[in-house]
């Protein structure tokens, strides 16, 4: 596990990664009352209104898969033993798109698009957990009309 590339912590992203180590997903939210959108990845200003008033808020960790690919040959040797795995784009309930991995290694790809997922926190290195996602019961996360 120690030879995996680790995130480079900065004053901007440190709250996100520290929360991951506690098993919590935090997102930045714009403080502009005319915007108020959630933001991912961590940054210094809102990409929508360009305001600089971003604060950290707990996120649900729920979303839906909007696209995926199955990785058979990773680009870094430290991930070779984990292949194959799914690299996914998740639209979080709060709005932002987050790229991550699916914890399930073998799933039917039928119905994977749009499938609800929930965040889980996986040891990436001895010092850092990262948010991955697992399949949620159909309709459990972000269900409309309930």
How would you explain this protein's 3D organization?
With 146 residues, the protein is mostly beta strands. It folds into 2 domains: 9-59, no CATH class; 61-138, OB fold (Dihydrolipoamide Acetyltransferase, E2P) (Beta Barrel). Helix content is 5%, strand content 35%. It contains 1 helix and 8 strands; from the N terminus they run αββββββββ. Strands 6-5-4-7-8 form a 5-stranded antiparallel β-sheet.
Put the structure in a nutshell:
With 146 residues, the protein is mostly beta strands.
Could you tell me how far the N terminus lies from the C terminus, measured between alpha carbons in angstroms? 42 Å
Instruction: Work out the count of structural domains.
Output: 2
Q: What gross morphology would you assign? A: globular
Gyration radius, in Å: 16 Å
Order of helices and strands: HEEEEEEEE
Secondary-structure arrangement, i.e. CATH architecture of the largest domain: Beta Barrel
What would you call the structural class?
Answer: mainly beta
| Oligomer designation | single chain
Number of contiguous helices: 1
Main beta sheet strand tally, sense and closure: 5 strands, antiparallel
Fraction in beta strands:
25-35%
């Amino acid at each position: 596990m120690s030879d995996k590339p680790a995130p480079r912590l900065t004053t901007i992203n440190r709250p996100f990664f520290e929360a991951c180590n506690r098993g919590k997903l935090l997102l930045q939210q714009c403080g502009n009352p005319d915007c108020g959108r959630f933001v991912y990845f961590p940054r210094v200003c809102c990409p929508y209104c360009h305001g600089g008033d971003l604060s950290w808020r707990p996120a649900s960790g729920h979303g839906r898969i909007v696209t995926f690919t199955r990785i058979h040959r990773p680009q870094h040797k430290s991930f070779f033993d984990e292949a194959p795995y799914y690299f996914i784009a998740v639209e979080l309930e709060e709005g932002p798109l987050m790229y991550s991995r699916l914890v399930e290694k073998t799933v039917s790809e039928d119905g994977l698009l749009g499938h609800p997922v929930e965040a889980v926190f996986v040891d990436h290195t001895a010092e850092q957990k990262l948010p991955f996602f697992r399949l949620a019961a159909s309709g459990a996360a972000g269900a409309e009309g309930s």
